[in-house]
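Minutes, project check-in
Item: structure for the 163-residue chain
Input as provided by the requester:
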Amino acid sequence: MKGNLVALAVLGFLGCQVEAAETKPPDKITKTDDQWKQSLSPAQFCIMRQKGTEAPFHNKYDSFFQPGVYQCAACGNQLFSSDSKYDSHTGWPAFFRPVSKDSIKVEKDNSLGMERTEVLCAKCDSHLGHVFLDGPKPGGLHFCINSACLNFIPDPASKTAKK
């Protein structure tokens, strides 16, 4: 029941709160497992295609806070902006909203004997992490995302972007 409430909250929030006004769903990418294995590292394949997770606190983007955009490591779909990233103290990168309502999708996840809300890339259906209702206000959403699922693209206008 709680997972259903999270999914409804996410869908309601995304319908009203995402800043991108006019977006269209991305074109779908489908590949076989063998094709994904050729384009992803073993860790990325485990997490993104087999719904695994990475160790907390020992991943690339948990304590990383530079201006830019986070893309799906499997397909390049823009997922989250650094403007929505925050430190949740959970050990994984945390965001309070996606870059657009069409960049992600959510599904019920009953694995591990509990009900959660899974976050997937809307373009390639890769598992990214989960969303919870313990995020910052006003929306209260906490997108807990695996670093291995993300590629960071620095904002070229930022003074902190590496050249």
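Outcome recorded: The first strand starts at residue 68 and ends at 72.
No further action items on this chain.
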